[in-house]
Amino acid sequence: MSGEEAPNTDIITLTRHVLNDQFHLGSLATGDLTLLLTAIQTTSKFIATNVRKARLINLVGLAGETNVQGEEQKKLDVLSNDIMVSQLRASGKTAVLVSEELEDAIIVEGRYKGKYCVVFDPLDGSSNIDAGVNIGTIFGIYHIQPDSKGELSDVLRPGSQMVAAGYVMYGSSCNLVMSTGHGVNGYTLDASLGEFILTHPDIRIPSRGKIYSINEGNAAYYYEPVTKYLNSIKFPATGKPYSARYIGSMVADVHRTLLYGGIFCYPDDKKSKSGKLRLLYEAFPMAYLTEQAGGVATTGRMRILDIVPKGIHERCPVFLGSKEDVQDVVKFYQAEAKEVNGKA
Ligand code: AHM
Ligand code: MG
Q: How do residues 161-170 score in pLDDT, each as one tens digit?
């Protein structure tokens, strides 16, 4: 025998893992969700490859258009959106598609029409591409309602009604983290196999962490509960102050929070009255994953997954992460509400 170890032949790929879940569901499982997830995996592999080549093949830079939020689109945003839409449509499993990059929802018609709705941000944090910082794809999946043929109302539903959600992080490795409502699992792309392999089974957020993550450049605009909460963790009466980490790329900041615990915040403030992050395809999927991993996700005033969206590009404040850390910030909001009620 040489010193080299034989490769493991019992690798658990994402497809195998999801299929296995469906076997357990028995007759309920149609394999449709598995096929849909295959479309998402293909998209992710395409984006992962192109993110790595971006500088070399001139994909970095502006595509010369602005998206619905009035932001400049990068070439990679456009490419990522296009491949995601074409793969999801071709899967034959989707009825409604909502993308951060498209003003209107796409209603899939004809023979490709399926029973799932996918809301997604094809390339989140794309202002980081030039600097080589982690970026990601975020997605959430609804099943159409019982009597629906697939219309806008199927995605204007609370995040708690999603059947699956996840993200893909394009970093030093490419990681896909997702949940189908039975806990959270993480997979790493083995580029030589072209497969996502189960590497982080059953991710659980520690009940308390040591890290807070927020854009403190907005401190001048914060409302009082946020300022007071931050002071409480930076200048604690006892114990060590929290460490600050902020990448400014939600997928990376949330990924770290899921694995190590702590809190990720993007609050509303005096400048951004509804916060910055988009409810449907940023806050909902991340809140879904956080709760599935045993954490808490709130606006400060209510559970994120209970919000009923009024529009597809609506924004919402976000605090998510370790249960105890998020409960701490909520206490400051409750104290403020009490004070306001007391005065009324
Ligand atoms: P984007 O959808 O335009 O990429 O913006 C979303 C990103 C998130 O990834 C990140 O959490 C946040 O915006 C960072 O915003 P800021 O630069 O204001 O801190
Ligand atoms: Mg985004």
A: 999 999 999 9
Could you tell me if residue 173 is inside a domain? yes
Ligand 1 within 6 A of CB of 125: yes
Report the percent of the chain where pLDDT is more than 90.
76
State whether 31 and 175 are in the same domain.
yes
Angle between helix 250-260 and 284-292 (nearest 10): 10
Q: From the CB of 124, is ligand 1 less than 6 Å away?
A: yes
User: Is residue 206 domain-resident?
Assistant: no
Contact 131, 109 (CB under 8 A): no
Q: Is 248 in the pocket of ligand 1 (CB under 6 A)?
A: yes
Domain of residue 21 covers 14-200
Please give the distance, rounded to the nearest whole angstrom, from the Cα atom of residue 183 to the centre of ligand 1: 26
What is the domain-level CATH number for residue 20?
3.30.540.10
Ligand with smallest separation from the Cα of 282? 2
- pLDDT tens per residue, range 214-267: 999 999 999 999 999 999 999 999 999 999 999 999 999 999 999 999 999 999
Query: Which of 270, 266, 257 is closest to 322 using CA atoms?
Result: 257
Whole-prediction pTM value? Answer: 0.93
Q: Is residue 5 part of a domain?
A: no
> What's the confidence (pLDDT) of residue 57?
63
Answer yes or no: is 4 within a domain: no
Please tell me what DSSP assigns to residue 315. B
Q: What is the mean pLDDT of the chain?
A: 92
CA of 278 to the centre of ligand 2 (A): 7
If asked whether residues 43 and 182 sit together in one domain, one would say yes
- pLDDT at residue 132, as a whole number: 82
Give the Å distance between the CA of 341 and the centre of ligand 2. Answer: 36
Sign of the torsion formed by the C-alpha atoms of 89, 168, 70 and 119: positive
Distance of CA 250 to the CA centre of its chain: 8
Q: Let me know whether 65 and 188 are in one domain.
A: yes
| CB-based neighbours (< 5 A) of ligand 2, an ion | 121, 124
Atom 15 in ligand 1: which residue has the minimum CA distance?
Answer: 248
